[in-house]
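Escalated from tier 1: pyridoxal-5'-phosphate holo job.
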Amino acid sequence: MITLSPPTLEIHPWQRELAAAITDVNELLSLLELEEGDVVGGVSPAAAREFRLRVPRYFAGLMRPGDPDDPLLAQVLPRAAEDHVVEGYVEDPVADLAAACAYGILQKYRGRALMITTGACAVHCRYCFRRHFPYAEQSVLPHWQAALQALHKLPDITELILSGGDPLSLADGRLSRLVTAAEEIPHLRRLRIHTRLPVVLPARITHKLADLLSHSRLQTVVVIHANHPNEITASLGQALGELRSRGTSLLNQAVLLKSVNDDADTLAELSESLFGIGVLPYYLHLLDPVAGAAHFDVPVDRPQRLLEQLRSRLPGYLVPQLVRELAGQPFKVPISPL
Ligand SMILES: *Cc1c(COP(=O)(O)O)cnc(C)c1O
Ligand code: SF4
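Tier 2 regenerated the structure:
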């Protein structure tokens, strides 16, 4: 799946794949040989309008045809359950807006600054805490000079985290300009990219991107986002291998989601499969209580029980840190044992 970078400003194959993503619920269902009636509770046209369905064809190809409960389908399908108003589920559950210190820059934790590079994502995940985020105002693209200026004046920041949206939805040229500008900030040591793109479209890992990261004076870390072992494929492994063999550290963060990965077998297999392609499990996040995602929530004592089961069957380095984001806390808060 690794593609050569074109010498000119042609559209790259991954960009074509991105543009051809499925955005119509019925198209996705018929591709999977399903009908609306097969989806328990039904789909929601209103939810699909508010936060559009979006699935690259490669990712849809990893879903099992004929299975309305497929764990990858469950992550992207706008269900009627999203329309239910559930107390405690709000639009900005992690108080991101309060943390905004300059256009597109969020600083919540010491030493690290997070830059919202773009609002665009290759896939739309129904549980996403940014689904109601006002990207138009916060997206850094029109303001990235100002954002970089702000970073120059924050000498205690040693790590810049590119986030979004998905920073890898930016073209390589644009990303390259951003990374070059970041390299000129003397106090930065590390560049971290949080992205789900390789998981839903491995062709995104171009030689040019691998060059950019391996030639940087900054240490580079790529944190992918995979929730289920079916997302870990040979193409993903091959694409990430190019980054890893050239010195980029690879980590994964997942979200604990009901009926997707809330059992020990699935989580253990996820860790094993990740390590098989050179990625270490980093975080397992509790669901952020974002409006429309309550149907992904798990019973209150389940996360700790799962953690205990994982610890009793995996080496310590394959057990992700189970954390929750609490507004105003100086770190992502670990879930304590039962
Ligand atoms: C999650 C997050 C980080 C990174 O936290 P780590 O614990 O270092 O992975 C940094 N900034 C913001 C705003 C975040 O939400
Ligand atoms: S920010 Fe990440 S979790 Fe949210 S929709 Fe985009 S890819 Fe999915």
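Residues 127 and 138 are 20 Å apart (CA to CA).
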